Structures are given as structure tokens and as C-alpha cells.
Amino acid sequence: MGRRSRGAATVVAAALVLAGCRGGDGDAAAPAAPAGDGPAGDADTTTTTAPPAPSPLTGLASPNAARPALVVKIDNAAAARPQAGLDKADVVFEEVVEGGEVRFMAVFQSQDAEWVGPVRSVRPVDPDIVSPLGGLFAYSGGTAQFTALIRRAPVTLVGYSELGLEVYTKRRDRRAPSNLYSSTAKLYARANPDDAAPPPLFRFLGAGAAFVPSGVAPATHATVNVSGRSRADWDFDAVANLWRRGTNGTPHTVEAGGQLGFANVVVQYVPYRNTTARDQSGTLVPTADVMGTGPVLVLSAGQMVRGTWSKATPTSVTQYADATGAPLSLTPGTTWVTLAPTGAATSTA
Length: 349
Fold this sequence. Notes:
This protein is mostly beta strands. The protein is built from 5 helices and 23 strands.
């Protein structure tokens, strides 16, 4: 054995005497513990994982909190029900269109839906609603003057006009025009790298805080006559802490099964006026004025409160306040916003 080998053996033997051996005779020597380990000398393998950030649209923790919003125009004509994907939306906006029908803008961010639809066309108020959100906007097309408006909005267009059957499916089990569908996965795949997460649309209560704004009163039911052809009923489900949706006297279900339920319902009363455009039947197309201020009814946690809404510019987030002017904070969770015509008959119980 050479000099270097004998010296190394001496050092190893000394280390074994000083540190001792684990187990019986012949076991390997225990490795020296790195500095800073616990008293037993074992390496600390504990790892800490930060909890998911809250979604800006629900206030609840979500692994998708940093991704952009995805807004999808969805039909609510009788032939369109039951729709797909509404139960996975963080926020749904309800607007009156021609003939007294209503359409929805479903806003996805924290959850995904395998099917979303039926997807329908853009309307003139849509840019003013989605401009604060940014992100992606999915639709089936529309009148030239209205598509021109949405093309000027600060959103990434992922509509059928832009992407066709690469992203959309015309389902054979549905009749046109209520047969165009997509999925959140296919639509999100077309996001731009610079599409940012949306700003919060609502204030949310802190953990364990109660919904007790000034003027609050108990409520378990509300009926809103959104138009001459569409009535919305809301019934509070105390077990799930959700408001269950009914449309024209029938529980509003989704294709996957189950009745729609949202943590908060915001009935925002806005003026409507007719545009110069007409649909295929010759009916004038209305639009809502969502800038300015007006009354609002908010349902949350088995309570109701009346207050005001205000919005300064198309890119401004709508602000909600109670009768004293104090900002309203909602229960964390999903929110349904009905843009009801000013003076729409509304009852609560």
C-alpha cells in the first residue's frame, strides 16, 4: 500500500472511532451531518408549499389565479337550455337582447369546463363589460357594427370568426344556431403571452366575516322580471350557501346535471335603449348603458341589501355601495350579475 493510501486509511479509522458506528459490528459508519441539521444529525427534508393565491374573481384560493379571464357569450333561448359550462364560471353577466330574450357572458378563470356553449354572437354592450377584464373573448360572430366595437376592446378575440372549427365544434345533437360549442382548454390555448390576470370585479369579505352591510335584511327568495319573456327566480340554499337559479318558473340546470347556484347575486338596474341595428327577423337590437350610476340589489348569504352601482369609463371596474355609500363586500365565491332594465319588477321574501 502506498503512502497516500495508508494515510487515508488512518484518517478513516480515526473518524470511525470518534463518530461511532450505527448498528452492529461491521455496519457502515454514519455519515457526518451537514451543519445546521437537527440534533439527531439527520438532514431536514421538510418542504413548505405556499398556498394557492386567491382568484381575483372569487376571492377563493385557486391554482389558476394568475391566468387571464375567458369570457364566453352563451345563449339562453329555450332551445339553448340546458347550457354547458355555466356551473364552472366565476362570474356570469345576464343581458337583455332583441325580442326580450336574454344572453349570458360567462367569465372563466379559476375553473375549467369540458364543454362551453352554445356560443352566440356579440352585442353592443359587451365591450363595456369586458374591457376592465381584458383576457380572451369567445363569440360566434355578429353584426358588422358590433363586431367592430369588440375588435377595438382590449381583449384577445378567440371567436368562431377568428378560429373556426379549429377550436369550435358544431354538435350534431343540437340544432343551429344553438349547436356551437368549445372548451376552456381549447380557448385558453389561444391566449397571448401578455394576457394578464383580471383585476378584482368585487370586494370580498375576509375569512369568517359576515355579510352585514348597512340596511341588510334577511331574504331567501327573489324574483326579477328581466324582460317580458324572461323571469329569474333565486332561492337560497342554506346548506350549500348558494342562491339557486330558476328561469321562467323552471330550475335552471346545466347539461352536466344539477341546478345553477351562485354565492352572490347582483341585480344591477340599468337603462336600455334601441340601437339602429335589427336582427334577422327585423327586430331592433337593444343595448344597455352601464356607465354612470343607478340602483342595485345584492343577495348574499341569505341576506339582501339595496344600494347603488357606479362606473366611470368603459375600462373602469363597476363599484357597488350600500345606501350610506360604504363599499359593499361580497361573500367569497361565484357571482351572477343581472343587467336588469331600470324599474324592472323585483320582489324579495
